[in-house]
Amino acid sequence: MRIGVPKEIKNREHRVAVTPEGVALLVGAGHKVVVESRAGIDSAFTDQAYRKAGAFVTDSADEIWRCELVIKVKEPLPDEYRHFRKGVILFTYLHLAAVPELARELMASGVCAIGYETVQLESGRLPLLAPMSQVAGKVAAQLGVQYLQKENGSPFQGTGRLLGGMGSLNAARVVILGAGNVGINAAETVACLGAEVLLLEANETRIHTLQQKTHKNIQVHHYTHKNLIGLLPTCDLLIGAALIPGKHAPMLLQRSDIALMKAGSVFVDVAIDQGGMSETSRPTSYEDPVYLEEGVIHCCLPNLPAAVPQTSTAALTHATLPYVRKIADMGLDAAVASDPSLKLGINIRDGNIVHEGVRSALAGQV
Ligand SMILES: NC(=O)c1ccc[n+]([C@@H]2O[C@H](COP(=O)([O-])OP(=O)(O)OC[C@H]3O[C@@H](n4cnc5c(N)ncnc54)[C@H](O)[C@@H]3O)[C@@H](O)[C@H]2O)c1
User: Fold this and answer.
1) Residues 277, 184, 361, 275: is their CA dihedral positive or negative?
2) Class of domain 2-110+309-361
3) Is this model's pTM higher than 0.70 or not?
4) Looking at the chain, which terminus has fewer C-beta neighbours within 10 angstroms, N or C?
5) How far apart are CA 96 and CA 361, in angstroms?
6) Which processes are annotated in GO (biological process) (predicted)?
7) Which residue's CA is the nearest one to ligand 1's atom 1?
8) Of all atoms in ligand 1, which is nearest to the CA of residue 206?
């Protein structure tokens, strides 16, 4: 199969869909891989490294999109819609619940769109979201720590509180909504710095499992709105990390809830890629990463793993490559028939939304 790898065009998206090592495996299996020039440069992979791995490197995005299978990192942007055509299998993060316009374009063009984030194992695990979520959780924690400082590189001053406290001064309090991959990784990162962490989770089994084994500074509680608003006035850093696969992120925060937080406290809404968890959330970019609402610094970057592309590209390729191989080796129909988790990845096919969660999230909008 011919596999195309475009250069990402999203603002400061530094990742690429496959490493040269991954290319070598695909080429070794008899596939042709076409990589856009400089696609890997921010992840420290030169065009030469891709050529050496057996890829054909081109300056032409058109040539990439003429391939049968196009693998990407982020959802296509409007400048990329012109490439859509029937016969293309697009394999990337899509997060369609947050971009109905993209869903409409994919449906109208006949592209078969497979979302990394909805590939789901029988256990419920999301194997292609998990590695980026683990990275995003750690980066969200690091950004939270940065913006809590008075001098943090933004126009807004944080509370100026050191996460781990000092001497008799208490540690800062971090509240995290959702104890999945993002939530746990963020929790462990800030707990290591000495913060007091409260994870609010909706799934009883998950709460029970985590209560047996988490770090001593981390408590896991059942999410209720009452629990949440009780914590907000003393919360220094709030992290949004809840997910219902395929759907809009649970909207757990009204503006009046955010207003309960201290001036200069920080809200990192990691779930912004699924539409965000607060009435006050809107996507930001690396050029302008934060804004102020109700005195609270909001950081809503939809591509946190892009901040650490060397780590993220390697982790992403490791997770996606077995699925890319399967589609390329067997063809989509046979691949899907052999693997129910991949079948759940298909969001749009032949002009129809086939993923149930995505369909209900976009009802009335497409
Ligand atoms: N901004 C970024 O760069 C970036 C990167 C990776 C992931 N994400 C996003 O982060 C979010 C979390 O991803 P994840 O991989 O950790 O998901 P996950 O499935 O591992 O965990 C989500 C958790 O949220 C819990 N949850 C659902 N509804 C809840 C509620 N009402 N209250 C409390 N908990 C609730 C679930 O039970 C689950 O444990 C997703 O929206 C994902 O798309 C964003």
Assistant:
1) positive
2) alpha beta
3) yes
4) C
5) 9
6) L-alanine catabolic process
7) 302
8) 39
* Residue 180 Cα to ligand 1 middle (Å): 6
Q: Which atom of ligand 1 is nearest to the CA of 303?
A: 3
The catalytic residue among 257, 269, 273, 339 is 273
Ligand 1 touching residue 246 (CB < 6 A) = no
Pairing of strands 237-240, 173-177: parallel
Distance 242 CA to ligand 1 centre (A): 3
User: How far is the C-alpha of 329 from the C-alpha of 335, rounded, in Å?
Assistant: 8
Q: Is the CB of 186 under 6 A from ligand 1?
A: no
Residue 95 designated active-site: yes
The two three-digit tokens of residue 69, written as one number = 């299978």
Task: Taking the CA atoms of 275, 279, 281 and 282 in sequence, report the sign of the dihedral they define.
Answer: positive
Would the pLDDT of 257 be above 90?
A: yes
Q: Is 85 annotated as a binding residue?
A: no
- Per the annotation, the verdict on 257 as an active-site residue is no
The CA 235 to ligand 1 mean position distance, Å, reads 20
- Mean pLDDT value of segment 179-186: 97
Q: Which residue has the tokens 């589609």?
A: 327
pLDDT at 9 over 90: yes
Lowest mean pLDDT among 36-40, 213-217, 296-300: 213-217
C-alpha–C-alpha distance, residues 351 and 87, integer Å: 12
Out of 14, 31, 95, 248, which one is annotated catalytic?
95
Question: Which residues are bridge partners to 66 per DSSP?
Answer: none
Give the count of beta carbons closer than 10 Å to the beta carbon of residue 94.
29
Decide if 2-110+309-361 and 130-306 have a common fold: yes
State whether residue 50 is helix, strand or coil: helix
Specify the CATH number of the domain 130-306. 3.40.50.720
Judge if the beta carbon of residue 180 lies within 6 A of ligand 1.
yes
- Check whether 273 is labelled as a binding-site residue: yes
Q: Are 272 and 283 a contacting pair, CB within 8 Å?
A: yes
Greatest CA separation found in the chain? 65
- Spell out the domain ranges in the chain: 2-110+309-361, 130-306
